[in-house]
Design goal:
88% helix
């Protein structure tokens, strides 16, 4: 029974500490979320374009080597 009480106390302690840490979290505003989304989408587009260009020239180079 003592073991069960110990597990219960650990669970209560965990939930209390988790709730305390959750209170410290900074949640972004809708404006900040939109700005971050635009940055991620923009960088994804730029990286896709860059990788596409690299792939294009790599394929052309291999085709030239193989004939």
């Amino acid at each position: 029974m003592n073991s069960l009480k110990s597990y219960f106390n650990q669970g209560v302690s965990f939930v209390t500490e988790a709730w305390t840490e959750l209170a410290k979290v900074h949640y972004p505003s809708p404006k900040e979320t939109m700005q971050a989304t635009i940055v991620v989408v923009g960088l994804t587009f730029v990286m896709a374009l860059w990788l596409g260009v690299i792939d294009f020239f790599a394929v052309r180079g291999v085709q030239m080597l193989l004939g």
